[in-house]
Amino acid sequence: MSDHRPTVVGITGGIGSGKTAATDAFAALGITVVDADLVSRDVVRPGTPALTEIARHLGKEFLLADGNLDRRALRELIFRDPATKKWLEALLHPLIRQEIIMQLQHSKSPYTLLSSPLLLETDQQTLCNRVLVIDAPESLQLERTMARDNSSADTIKAIMASQFNRQQRLDKADDIIVNDGDLTALQSAVQTLHKTYLEISR
Ligand code: ATP
Question: How high is the pLDDT of residue 2?
Fold first, then answer.
């Protein structure tokens, strides 16, 4: 049996940089996208051991009436409490990684994308053969996220400050899409990279 491992391209970028818009374009070309954000929600859905552990450790006030995790309350807590942030990451990161590996193994497309806002900040990058960074000026990140989420500029700036900055991300990139044009320009950049990725995964 061949031990050729399928190519995994990690895709990352700051909040509102256009990761989802880019992965939608890859998905339209038939490429499987494993989404670390979705996985991180999945491992704490009601009934999971991780959610039980969170409620036991932090209290039932972190559960909503319907049994789901109160993500907003938890996000606020870990912003002001680094020890809890560490505890939570130690609980969740291995579970998230395990589930990502399983989804990558099930992919049938010629190569697979692993989309993660924290690809470079966590060990998720070790699952990738190559890193694609979606880059956008911070003013555009802010403008697009405010239009999308109705969040305040302060909230978005706090999230940006908790992530790698533009230069730290670019330093780790094998490929870069500068997403400062319209969606057609983004899609055309995706099509060009798609050809490269098909080449290297043969
Ligand atoms: P997050 O990390 O918050 O999930 P993201 O990197 O996935 O963000 P997107 O949701 O893809 O970012 O993009 C943010 C917003 O900007 C969306 O509403 C998206 O449709 C819009 N957008 C992204 N790229 C472009 C573009 N080139 N032209 C116009 N709008 C864009």
Answer: 42
Q: Which residues pair with 122 in a beta bridge?
A: none
**Ligand 1 site-directed mutation target among 20, 37, 133, 143, most atoms within 8 Å of CB:** 20
Question: 56 CA distance to ligand 1 centroid (A)?
Answer: 36
Q: Does the beta carbon of 10 lie inside 6 Å of ligand 1?
A: no
> Which candidate, 52, 19, 25, places its Cα nearest to that of 38?
19
How many angstroms separate the CA atoms of 25 and 190, rounded?
7
Helices (H), 44-81: 49-58, 71-80
pLDDT digits over 1-43, tens only?
444 567 999 999 999 999 999 999 999 999 999 999 999 999 9
Distance CA 42, CA 20 (A): 18
- Whether residue 97 is predicted with pLDDT greater than 90 in this model: the reply is yes
Q: How far is the CA of 15 from the centre of ligand 1 (A)?
A: 8
